[in-house]
Amino acid sequence: MTGTVLRSLLAVVAALLVAFALVVAVEGFSAIVHPFPADFDGSYAQMLEHVARYPAWVLAVASLMWAGIVLLCTWMATRFGSARHRAHGVVVGAILLAAVVFNMAMLPYPLWFEVANVILFPLATYCGVSLARGPRGEGVQPLR
To answer: Using alpha carbons only, what angle is made at residue 67 by residues 64 and 72, rounded to the nearest 5 degrees?
Structure first.
């Protein structure tokens, strides 16, 4: 029982750590293609202005990359969690969805970007969990 819980916890934590590292990489990409102005001092007001000026193509690419991260990390959590139970991937997907909703609530992203992420994250979660479980849950062991 303890081994099952520990494996489940480690799968979720590992998937979230990978997600964090990959999101940092996506933010690095966006900083390269849409750099901060020379006089940027890190204030919230300047951050709002910077985000409001994001080109649509950068946001589209970031949204797709974020969805790819969700797919990969929900797959990881489900695949390496105990018995390939879907709860592992769903927890990771829910945490990542909550994080992106919080991010979008704080910054002035366009509506299309927000809608795209709210659609893509659950879809990527479903796909990641389904791929990890295999067709009709093949290879899934019952929880002990």
So the answer is: 125
Q: Is 134's pLDDT higher than 70?
A: yes
Tokens of 141: 């062991």
Q: List the structure tokens of 111.
A: 């509506």
Q: Which two tokens stand for residue 45?
A: 């007001």
pLDDT in tens, 113-133: 999 999 999 999 999 999 999
Tell me if 27 sits within 8 A of 61, measured CB to CB.
Answer: no
Kindly report the length of the chain: 144
| Per-residue pLDDT tens digits for 93-107 | 999 999 999 999 999
> What burial letters (b/e) apply to 90-120, b meaning 16+ CB within 10 Å?
bbbbebbbebbeeebeeeebeeebbebbeeb
User: What is the C-alpha separation between 47 and 105, in angstroms, rounded?
Assistant: 14
Rounded average pLDDT over 21-30: 97
CA distance 70 to 120: 9
Residues 6 or more apart whose Cβ sits within 8 Å of residue 112? none
Phi then psi for 79, rounded to 5 degrees? Answer: -65, -40
